[in-house]
Amino acid sequence: MNMQPKRPSLLERAAQIYDFNAALKARPAPAAADDLPPPSPAGFAAPAPAERHHARPGRTGTIDREELREAGYILPDAPVSALAEEFRIVKRQLLLAAMDGADPRSRRILVASAMPDEGKTFCAVNLALSMANERDIEVLLVDADVAKPSILSTLGLEAGPGIMDAVEDAAIDPESCVIRTDLANLSVLPAGRPSNEATELIAADRTRVVIEALGRVPNRITIFDSPPVLAASPASVLALHVGQTMMVVRADRTSEADLKDALRLLEGCDDIRLLLNAASAGLGRRRFGTYYGYGA
Ligand SMILES: Nc1ncnc2c1ncn2[C@@H]1O[C@H](COP(=O)(O)OP(=O)(O)O)[C@@H](O)[C@H]1O
Ligand SMILES: [Mg+2]
User: What does the pLDDT average to over 119-137?
Assistant: First the structure.
């Protein structure tokens, strides 16, 4: 008897388009639940405490845990759930690739999807919360869905300047817009000033300068909550600056044609994994689904 759940054919076929990082597929998962193997010398050096928490510009903010809990997000102090377990697996694979890469882009992860409302923000925030449990890394969650930002409201943080301001004005240090939260390893960069030209601005070369500046903080993993790939052009530009892309596919919503079009637009990134977000409002029950791109 086959106990494996049947995979949706959509994903089986989509997965065939991509050569999902064979090296990662072969790699056994680390044994300890939430701790990764010791950082490799080429990758993550143990940070000097002073560099991590002091002498940095920017403000601080408190995360609204109650709101997150109500919206179904995973919190560090919550009992272990199936959802938390799923994100732990996803996180582990992403971090292994991040640590392996000599290219600084490998520490930048784009969380994208073809259309709005497929769960990009849900997955980006959960991934960030999960990664923030790790020792020796700092997670920077960037709200790059500049036309429809929702990271600050999701986390209950106050509005303020962000990536758009730093991209628009070279005099603004992007680090000064970063909010350090009361979760020790989690920082947030808001989308910032709303602009009619958000799309054009994020496509400008200055975005690369800003993203590279943000990457200079030791041991930082940057997660970008992307705009919908088919609804706005910046996603394909962001894909050029990241080493890994997590493509959220919502089982009850994403069409195969849209997924293929979106994957084509993200060609700038050569490590794309599909993440099946199996949220199903119709069933009155929401569930997070399978992670594709390795294992199984
Ligand atoms: N797996 C899930 N379980 C519960 N709620 C989810 C899940 N995926 C998405 N949602 C909810 O669905 C809505 C749309 O998701 P969101 O992440 O905002 O989409 P996007 O960022 O792609 O526009 C949000 O209210 C979000 O909290
Ligand atoms: Mg969103």
Answer: 95
Please tell me which residue, 19 or 181, carries the higher pLDDT value.
181
Three-state SS for 24? helix
pLDDT higher than 60, residue 28 = no
| Alpha carbon distances (Å) from 43 to 133, 139, 232 | 19, 15, 33
Question: Does residue 67's CB lie within 6 angstroms of at least one atom of ligand 1?
Answer: no
Residues lining ion ligand 2 (Cβ < 5 A) are 120-121, 145, 150
Residue 291 phi, psi dihedral angles, 5° rounding: -105, 125
CA distances in angstroms from 219 to 49, 206, 211, listed in the order given? 11, 23, 15
Indicate if ligand 1 lies below 6 Å from the C-beta of 250: no
Average pLDDT, stretch 186-200? 90
Domains, the chain: 56-283 (3.40.50.300)
Atom of ligand 1 nearest to the CA of 116: 23
- With CA atoms as reference, report the closest residue to 126 among 88, 98, 79, 94: 88
113 in ligand 1 pocket by Cβ < 6 Å?
yes
User: 79 alpha carbon to ligand 1 midpoint, in Å?
Assistant: 21
User: Closest Cα to atom 17, ligand 1: which residue?
Assistant: 119
More confident residue, 102 or 125: 125
Sequential DSSP letters for 232-243: -THHHHHHHH-S
**What pLDDT digit, counting tens, does each position of 231-285 carry?**
877 899 999 999 999 999 998 889 999 999 999 999 999 899 999 987 554 444 4
Q: Which amino acid residue places its CA nearest to atom 16 of ligand 1?
A: 119
Reported as a pLDDT band with limits 50, 70 and 90, residue 44 is low
- Please say whether the beta carbons of 145 and 121 come within 8 A: yes
